[in-house]
């Protein structure tokens, strides 16, 4: 208890708690993991995440790692990427995986949902042009399917193309034969996932911790 009390006396920890929704205990746990990953340095680099065993076999490992270095995910209005991140930036990215608090209002819950979906959208909008193109979507689906070992690359490509056409029909409705589908905008993305309860399903385990468990331990202590 004394250690937690001392953390609460640190202005930077109070600011981080308010910014991310994590409790002081959770911030302490994540700071310890950050230091392990960064080899006790103050900044974390891609190579540090590249060595995590649980991430090595993940078919979208590249997108996951890049998400930590994408300025769009730092709760700022920046774009582009950085070569290394501080603990604060690491914590802000991790906060996208927090389940919503039980006592949130409907408006607050919708805000959390939108932020989580924006984070997922950014992961697949790799060129930051505001749309997930056929090529970007195809790459993700191909990786997910072909790495399973059950399908060949060409079969995976065909399924990815068919899936994209299905997404286009959901997003745009009827399309003329000569009409070109530019890609999924964020508003289309919201529409496609409107029935998915992303708020509680989006979690992360590759840091040797389960954020669902982590956040349930003390989620009521930060407002």
From TrEMBL:
<dbReference type="InterPro" id="IPR018247">
    <property type="entry name" value="EF_Hand_1_Ca_BS"/>
</dbReference>
<keyword id="KW-0519">Myristate</keyword>
<dbReference type="InterPro" id="IPR052490">
    <property type="entry name" value="CHP3"/>
</dbReference>
<dbReference type="GO" id="GO:0032587">
    <property type="term" value="C:ruffle membrane"/>
</dbReference>
<dbReference type="GO" id="GO:0004860">
    <property type="term" value="F:protein kinase inhibitor activity"/>
</dbReference>
<dbReference type="Pfam" id="PF00036">
    <property type="entry name" value="EF-hand_1"/>
</dbReference>
<keyword id="KW-0649">Protein kinase inhibitor</keyword>
<dbReference type="GO" id="GO:0005509">
    <property type="term" value="F:calcium ion binding"/>
</dbReference>
<dbReference type="GO" id="GO:0005737">
    <property type="term" value="C:cytoplasm"/>
</dbReference>
<keyword id="KW-0106">Calcium</keyword>
<protein>
    <recommendedName>
        <fullName>Calcineurin B homologous protein 3</fullName>
    </recommendedName>
</protein>
<keyword id="KW-0221">Differentiation</keyword>
<dbReference type="InterPro" id="IPR002048">
    <property type="entry name" value="EF_hand_dom"/>
</dbReference>
<keyword id="KW-1003">Cell membrane</keyword>
<comment type="similarity">
    <text>Belongs to the calcineurin regulatory subunit family. CHP subfamily.</text>
</comment>
<keyword id="KW-0479">Metal-binding</keyword>
<dbReference type="GO" id="GO:0030027">
    <property type="term" value="C:lamellipodium"/>
</dbReference>
<keyword id="KW-0966">Cell projection</keyword>
<feature type="domain" description="EF-hand">
    <location>
        <begin position="112"/>
        <end position="147"/>
    </location>
</feature>
<keyword id="KW-0472">Membrane</keyword>
<keyword id="KW-0539">Nucleus</keyword>
<keyword id="KW-0449">Lipoprotein</keyword>
<dbReference type="GO" id="GO:0030154">
    <property type="term" value="P:cell differentiation"/>
</dbReference>
<keyword id="KW-0963">Cytoplasm</keyword>
<dbReference type="InterPro" id="IPR011992">
    <property type="entry name" value="EF-hand-dom_pair"/>
</dbReference>
<dbReference type="GO" id="GO:0005634">
    <property type="term" value="C:nucleus"/>
</dbReference>
């Amino acid at each position: 208890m004394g250690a937690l009390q001392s953390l609460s006396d640190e202005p930077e920890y109070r600011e981080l708690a308010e910014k991310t929704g994590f409790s002081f205990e959770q911030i302490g746990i994540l700071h310890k993991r950050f230091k392990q990953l960064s080899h006790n340095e103050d900044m974390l680099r891609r190579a540090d995440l590249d060595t995590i065993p649980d991430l090595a076999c993940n078919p979208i490992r590249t997108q996951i790692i890049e998400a930590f270095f994408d300025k769009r995910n730092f709760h700022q209005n920046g774009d582009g990427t950085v070569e290394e991140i501080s603990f604060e930036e690491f914590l802000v990215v991790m906060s996208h995986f927090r389940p919503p608090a039980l006592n949130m209002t409907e408006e607050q819950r919708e805000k959390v949902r939108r932020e989580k979906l924006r984070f997922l959208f950014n992961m697949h909008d790799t060129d930051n042009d505001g749309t997930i193109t056929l090529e970007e979507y195809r790459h993700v689906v191909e990786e997910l399917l072909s790495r399973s070992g059950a399908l060949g690359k060409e079969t995976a490509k065909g399924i990815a193309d068919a899936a994209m056409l299905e997404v286009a029909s959901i997003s745009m409705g009827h399309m003329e034969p000569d009409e070109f589908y530019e890609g999924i905008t964020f508003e289309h993305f919201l529409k496609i996932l409107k029935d998915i309860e992303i708020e509680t399903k989006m979690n992360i385990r590759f840091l040797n911790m389960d954020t669902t468990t982590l956040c349930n331990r003390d989620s009521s202590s930060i407002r």
